Amino acid sequence: MNGFRWQPEATDGAARAGHLHTAHGVVATPTFMPVGTAGTVKAMTMDSVRSTGAGIVLGNTYHLMLRPGAERVQALGGLHRFMDWPGPILTDSGGFQVMSLGALRKLDSDGVTFQSHIDGSRHRLTPERSTEIQHMLDATITMCFDECPALPAETDAIAASMRLSMRWAARSREAFVARDGYAQYGIVQGGTEPQLRAESVRALTDIGFEGYAIGGLAVGEGQALMFQTLDGTVPLMPADKPRYLMGVGTPDDLLGSVMRGIDMFDCVMPTRSGRTARAYTGFGTLNLRNARHALDPRPLEAGCPCPACTRHSRAYLHHLFRADEILGPMLLTWHNLTYYQRVMQGIRTAILETRLGAHAIELRAGWAAGDP
Ligand SMILES: CNc1nc2cc(C(N)=O)ccc2[nH]1
To answer: How many Cβ atoms are within 10 Å of 240's Cβ, its own excluded?
Structure first.
């Protein structure tokens, strides 16, 4: 009996609230995972990440295998110890990063050979090696090694890519070392083609995983096509297992995806935007480098409990970014992650109170209203 499980708590339409039980603790869902690419959530200490309300973080296999190296992290006690994060960690498989970051890469039916974007050194990832690396990192949740095809693409190219990923999923599962409280997720592929997505779900559920991700989206297809793909795919996925939408998204993406049955998310937007002066708030986004903030004594967002909003003014944040002070990205990353967690907590409460429809209207009205 694997102690890893998703325990349902409430539903509101297709939306679900529940708890993810893992070897490294329990996480309420729906949940947003801050991205901790190279063993750090950029500009944050892990105590500050915890203070935002995050329960689980993501690590990138591609970055960690190149630097400092999976063997070194293992020798130092694993990623939890290395980055001082006792909670659950999900690591991606490296496939997506290789395709988007690796300087040169050669894909074949067995895996991918690529050059490091750091020093040009040559590396190879296969389903077996990716799974081994994630084991060495001591990932709570391991992702299958897959290929995420660029969109748009011809249907037969999407089909071939999906079927390769399904063969790689079987090899990833074979290589996975099962441990109590640990999990491996399969990744549904198939582009925006309903039949290919259905074939992929069948292939993965025939293999059997502790959770299922939807990959191949948030690659430029746009929100409407992403939601349309979710509408056709999520109902086919096992209802008793966690569902993870990879690389998504804006607060509006999160809301619409939870309403379609997604439980887990990761996205670089709140952290990357925090470093580039873009703030996420209940009244939409704003750019703190804009001159209109120079003399504004108000907090960034009234009611937000983060240090940027409780201790400082918009004018100060504006100054920090104009002066290129490192405290700017620190404070705004802290704010954006806090805001993302508040959005997820508000959605979760609305599901528990069966008022998600009304809550969605309120959220969208706030985002549309703009800066008060
Ligand atoms: C930012 N968009 C995004 N799409 C993704 C797809 C995958 C995937 N494995 O298909 C992984 C990470 C992803 N991030």
So the answer is: 9
Which protein residue's CA is at the shortest distance from atom 14 of ligand 1? 247
pLDDT of residue 1: 60
d(CA 345, CA 337): 12
Positive or negative, the CA dihedral 60, 63, 65, 67 is negative
What mean pLDDT, rounded, does the chain reach? Answer: 97
Does the pTM surpass 0.80? The reply is yes
Angstrom distances, CA of residue 180 to CA of 131, 197, 208, 357: 17, 30, 16, 37
Most informative mutation of 93, 246, 268, 272 for ligand 1 (most atoms within 8 A of CB): 246
Helix/strand/coil for 202: helix
CA of 213 to the centre of ligand 1 (A): 10
What is the three-class DSSP state of 320?
A: helix
β-pairing verdict for 243-245 and 25-29? unpaired
Sequential DSSP letters for 68-91: T-HHHHHHTT-HHHHHT--S-EEE
Query: Do the bridges between strand 243-245 and strand 122-125 make them parallel or antiparallel, or are there none, so unpaired?
Result: unpaired
Q: Is this complex's ipTM strictly greater than 0.90? A: yes
Is the CB of 211 inside a 6 Å radius of any atom of ligand 1?
A: no
- Distance of alpha carbon 372 from alpha carbon 369, whole angstroms: 8
Ligand 1: does its nearest atom lie under 6 Å from the Cβ of 83?
A: no
Q: Which amino acid is at 308?
A: A
Q: Give CA–CA dist 357/24, Å, rounded.
A: 33
What does the pLDDT look like over 258-305, one tens digit per residue? 999 999 999 999 999 999 999 999 999 999 999 999 999 999 999 999
Backbone phi, then psi, for 113, in 5-degree steps?
-105, 135
- Distance between CA atoms of residues 192 and 157, nearest Å: 12
Q: State pLDDT tens for residues 68-89.
A: 999 999 999 999 999 999 999 9
Cβ 120 vs Cβ 164: under 8 Å: no
**Residue positions counted in the chain:** 372
Cα 55 to Cα 27: distance, rounded to the nearest angstrom: 6
Q: How far is the CA of 179 from the centre of ligand 1 (A)?
A: 26
Question: How is residue 227 written in tokens?
Answer: 């939601």
